[in-house]
Design goal:
Blueprint: E1 9-10, H1 12-24, E2 27-34, E3 40-48, H2 53-58, E4 66-75, E5 81-90, H3 97-113, E6 119-123, H4 131-138
Length: about 140
Amino acid sequence: MANSASGVAVDQTCVQEFMSLKTKRTYKFLIFKVNDDGKEIVVDARGDRDGKWEQLTEQLPEHECRYAVWDHDFTNKEGRPMSKIFFILWVPDTAKVRSKMLYASSKDNFRTMLDGINYELQATDADEIDYEVIIDRCKEA
């Protein structure tokens, strides 16, 4: 299904893998990209269930945009174990303008296809996706 704003379709594998992360807890994170011909969002990388935040951030290219999903486990103020799913739009300042526009215009359609996202982050450099940002967001839960 193509996004009316950008014309970029979403490969159904993206939705299937997200559902596997959400319901079966198969992955800790997923990274998605717009394929080389600019017509479809595809899975770029998968992080094993024991994956660490640094493994996700290290796989985000310095000069290219990506989408990512992170399944964050934590204990809330009442001591109850919880999990929150983050959607991340990675648009580094050094990325090409056309790429930034394509990712930004495709984001809403793609995000709505991933049912169950709790929080959304947009980052343009490594400081904006520091692990402390994730922890701070979960303090609200």
